[in-house]
Specification:
seven-stranded mixed beta sheet
Length: 281
């Protein structure tokens, strides 16, 4: 099948500019995608997806392009920018990765992870965005609930969640909502397909306390990392960045309570919500 170059806005993002520059230098050298793939020992499809910004450039590609085109560190510099930017379609790409992941590992410091939320809890959390009309909130709730369908498949991905004790004790939607939420969470603490650990207050401060993190292990064995703060998020697709976030997650897992101890803490917090909901005699 003949590759037909699609229109590419080079200044939409650093990744788009990388792809546009690869195409510009390739066409200036009068090389087809197949010819460039042979020179780089790459694949035509990979190079085509890089040129259309559908794929983050593989980490070894920039240096190969600089050698092939004699561009010093031109592509190296573009890659350094591309891998650090929060590109506009990152969440959609994250969702695509999550949908096919074999293992999902998640950390949340302040809220119950979205894949484990009840509808009522999700409503209470998403309704905090006062600028959103009610119909948009409902749309977001439905989307979040639909993401949970993968965990109920006959062969679901392995899901591992670590959450701070603060997520258990911060009441979203009132005591009844929280009691129901923690009861559902408790069911997922230690099953063949899901594990939940709690990072207790007694553990003190730790590196990841300021933001959420998700690691996705893909069918080919590679890992991508998605790190979130309040308004800025980053999707890391390169191997070295994913390894860095993996180390932080493994340290967190080693210092969190075991699933059994986490279940006991969840039960204790549930009792606290029950006592709050019970009127004094």
């Amino acid at each position: 099948m003949t590759f037909k170059p699609q229109q590419l806005p080079p200044y939409h993002s650093a990744r788009h500019y990388f792809g546009a520059e690869q195409r510009r230098h390739r066409e200036a050298a009068r090389l087809s995608l197949v010819q460039l793939a042979d020179i780089l020992s790459s694949s035509k499809s990979t190079l085509a997806r890089v040129e259309t910004a559908e794929l983050m450039p593989p980490p070894d590609l920039p240096a190969q392009l600089d050698v092939a085109f004699g561009t010093d560190k031109h592509f190296h510099g573009l890659y350094e920018l591309a891998k650090r930017e929060a590109h506009p379609d990152q969440y959609r790409r994250f969702m695509d990765f999550e949908a096919g992941a074999k293992v999902i590992e998640n950390f949340e410091p302040q809220v119950i992870p979205g894949l484990l939320q009840t509808r009522e809890y999700a409503d209470a959390q998403l309704s905090l965005q006062e600028e959103l009309p009610r119909e948009k909130v409902e749309e977001l709730i439905n989307a979040r609930m639909s993401r949970q369908d993968r965990l109920r498949l006959d062969q679901p991905p392995l899901y591992w969640a670590i959450l701070d004790e603060a997520a258990l004790r911060r009441p979203f939607g009132g005591t009844e909502c929280m009691h129901k939420q923690l009861a559902q969470l408790l069911e997922q603490v230690d099953t063949p397909d899901s594990k939940v650990q709690v990072m207790p207050f007694s553990a003190g401060p730790y590196y990841l306390i300021g933001g959420a993190l998700t690691l996705l292990t893909l069918p080919n064995g590679s890992t991508v990392a998605y790190e979130e703060s309040i308004e800025v998020s980053h999707l890391y697709e390169d191997r070295e960045s994913a390894k860095k976030w993996r180390r932080h997650y493994d340290v967190l897992r080693a210092n969190a309570l075991s699933p059994a101890a986490s279940a006991e803490l969840i039960r204790q917090v549930m009792e606290d919500y029950t006592s709050c909901a019970t009127p004094p005699s």
